[in-house]
Each structure stands twice: as C-alpha cells, then as structure tokens.
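User: Design a sequence. Structure:
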C-alpha cells in the first residue's frame, strides 16, 4: 500500500507535516443553505415540518410525532432481545463508564472571609439535554453510553434521544443502550430537523438546553447554527490516531491499531512515529498483508493513502514534541516506561499508555469518554464529561462590614470607568 513515509530529518519536514494534518473544515455552502432552510421551517412550523422531512428523508408514512416516540417498554424489550453475551457486554461497559464519570462530579464550595463575607461556587446540572444518535443500519450503542451516562451522573433531569430510523429500521443495540442508560424519551427522528426540534422545541419534542452526539454533515451544520440558542458538545472532525512506538511492539498490533481508526471513513487519519527505521518497514509489511483481510479494506486503504503516514523521528523526545504539535484525538504510547513518557504529553484527547492499551478499548469499555477533540483542538479542548452537563454559579454574600471595604474599592473603580450608577450603588451601602 502506498502510505506516506517521511522523516523528521527531511529539510521540508514541517511543510510535509502541515500538509498531512491539513483538513478543510469549512462547511459546504450548499449543505449549510439546506440546513438553514430546514431549521427555519422547523422553528416556524414545529411538528408539521419535522413530520414532512421525516416522511421525505426517512421514508416513513406517519401522521403524527406520537407515532415516532418509543415507549420505555419498547426500549426494555430491545434490551431483552439481545443475545446474552451482547447484553452482558453492554451492561459491563455501562458500569465501567458510569464508575469513571462519577469521579468527575464537581462540588459546590464556599469560604468565609474575616469580616463575614461569604464567597463560593454552586454547581447545578442542566435541566434537559438532547442526545443525537446515528440510526438505521449504523449501530453505535457506545455513542449512547458515552453521551447519556455522564449526563445522568451529572444529574440532568430529562434526557431526550433522537435517532433516525430510515425505512422504519430500528437498531436493537442502540435502543437497548438507551434502556441501560435510563434515557427518558426517544424519538425516531433524525437529520437537521431533529436538531431543530430539540433546539427550538415543538408541540411534541421538548426544547433542550444542550445537544450532544455525533451525526453526518447536515447534523454538524445544524449544531453549528443552533449554538447560542442551545449549547452543543463540539463539532467533531474525522477520527484520528497517533501511535508512538519504540520499535519493540508486535508490528501487527500497531498496523491493526492504525486500521481501527482508518476504517471509520476515508477522511480518518492514522499516523505512527518511531525512531526505529527497521520497525517502520515491519509495520509497512504488516499493513500490506493485513489490509487484505479487512472487510472495510477499501475505506482503510483510502484513509491510509490520503491521510496516513509512517514517520521516522530522531528519538522519543522528538516524538513527544511532534505529538504535542499534532494534538491528536487518540494517542497510543506503545513503548517501555510509557507511564513516565506520558508526562511529556500536553495535548491529546485520550492517552493510551502501554502496549496493551489499544484505542479500541477506549471506544467501548475502558471507562473514560470516547467523545474527544479532533483536528488539533485538543490544544484547548477536553473529552466530553460530567462537567459538560453541569454549570457553575458564583455565590456572593457580602457582610455589612465587607460592604464598607468593598464598596469603597468598587466606587473608585466605577468612577474611573465613568459608570456613576455603579459607583452610587456601592456607595449607598457605606455608613459614612
């Protein structure tokens, strides 16, 4: 396979790296216009617009949105219908994800100053959250777990899930995951119209405070457009993996780890850094041999040829520097002393430490969230977590004595800014 190969010692290394990482994130104007029209229609006509688009895009002959809402009994039935091994795996993954996220809960706190003034922070959960889940032939129960569980752990009062069912095709795994997570309501709608229904509210679909979950280009464009009316988690780009290997791992393991992200879609990115040139050759050989066995061979091949790379670096310290520049969604440290090495990493969505920590485990059941920043946004963003479903209010209770000290400070600063009402408001509390 013709996967890109270059070295950090190349004179044009930085240019080659920039070209490799470049990804056009600009929206397609045509998609954006279609989405704008759909959102405007849903905002204006509510249920009628959602029904019209659902009939058109999902080919469903329904008369009202009540026909598209699933009952708790239907969700429970989906869970019961799963083979035991599948159900056990789903429930085990849910337990692990919940246990991890329970440790993320933020706490309220206060402290009292010497003059009796109390300051602090009060943490509360969002009231209602919308969860978008891809549907139809696509089966992403893990997406339900990773979005619904932290919301529930945070204390979100109501979680509304939307999932398209084109042609009426419902995915039992997805519905079972909703049952396991305690999703409150599920509507079989999708696309930009579902995002609009959640953002603006309709007669049947409640308006939410935040929308989370992955979707296609139309869903992503809709989330961008409704941001500000509601919160969103992020607008994610294609999946990414960066593997740093010291040359001592089985090359087949590394090749398959690269495949695990490349198989998502043709735009996914899989990169390896290693100081061992001979090992890079072995990984190349493993890629060439193993790709022939992959059911998604064509997708993997296109991804690796267009956006993949095997990069030779001077040493492991340089690999860490390059990794921090790339700021990957997933970073595997396949090496000796990986835990110590991880302290050199400043920018990554999730860090998989050691040869046994393959990224696939993080996707499903390790515990940490698999909703991660992409396209180098790990430089300033974090994984989805409980904190995304909580908000903080500042607490300020000024004592009579504190009002004397703070009032004079505020008055002086307010006059300096030319805001006399601010100053007088503080001055009214002064005793002299």
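Assistant: Done.
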């Amino acid at each position: 396979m013709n996967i890109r190969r270059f070295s950090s010692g190349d004179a044009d290394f930085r240019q080659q790296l920039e070209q490799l990482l470049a990804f056009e994130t600009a929206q397609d104007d045509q998609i954006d216009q279609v989405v704008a029209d759909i959102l405007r229609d849903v905002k204006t006509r509510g249920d009628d617009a959602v029904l019209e688009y659902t009939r058109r895009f999902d080919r469903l002959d329904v008369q009202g949105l009540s026909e598209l809402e699933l009952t708790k009994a239907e969700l429970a039935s989906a869970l019961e219908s799963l083979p035991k091994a599948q159900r056990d795996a789903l429930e085990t993954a849910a337990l692990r994800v919940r246990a991890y996220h329970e440790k993320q809960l933020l706490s309220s706190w206060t402290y009292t100053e010497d003059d009796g003034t109390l300051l602090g922070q009060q943490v509360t959960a969002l009231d209602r959250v919308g969860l978008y889940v891809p549907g139809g032939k696509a089966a992403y129960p893990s997406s339900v777990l990773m979005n619904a569980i932290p919301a529930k752990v945070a204390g979100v009062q109501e979680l509304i899930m939307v999932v398209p069912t084109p042609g009426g095709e419902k995915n039992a795994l997805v519905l079972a995951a909703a049952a396991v997570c305690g999703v409150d309501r599920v509507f079989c709608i999708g696309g930009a119209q579902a995002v609009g229904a959640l953002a603006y509210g309709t007669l049947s679909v409640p308006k939410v405070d935040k929308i989370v979950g992955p979707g296609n280009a139309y869903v992503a464009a809709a989330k961008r457009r409704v941001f500000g009316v509601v919160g969103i988690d992020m607008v994610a780009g294609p999946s990414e993996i960066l593997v740093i290997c010291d040359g001592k791992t089985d090359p087949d393991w590394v090749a398959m780890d690269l495949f695990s992200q490349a198989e998502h879609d043709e735009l996914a990115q899989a990169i390896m850094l290693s100081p061992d040139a001979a090992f890079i050759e072995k990984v190349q050989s493993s890629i060439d041999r193993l790709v022939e066995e992959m059911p998604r061979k064509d997708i993997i091949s296109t991804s690796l040829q267009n956006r993949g790379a095997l990069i030779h670096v001077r040493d492991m310290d340089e690999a860490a520097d390059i990794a921090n520049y790339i700021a990957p969604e997933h970073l595997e440290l396949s090496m000796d002393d990986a835990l110590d090495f991880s302290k050199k990493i400043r920018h990554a969505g999730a860090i998989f430490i050691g040869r046994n920590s393959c990224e696939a485990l993080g996707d499903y059941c390790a515990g940490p969230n698999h909703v991660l920043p992409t396209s180098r946004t790990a430089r300033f963003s974090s994984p989805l977590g409980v904190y995304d479903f909580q908000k903080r209010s500042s607490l300020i209770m000024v004592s009579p004595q504190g009002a004397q000290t703070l009032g004079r400070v505020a008055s002086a600063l307010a006059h300096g800014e030319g805001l006399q009402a601010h100053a007088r408001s503080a001055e009214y509390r002064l005793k002299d």
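DSSP finds 17 helices and 15 strands in the chain. Residues 398-427 form one domain.
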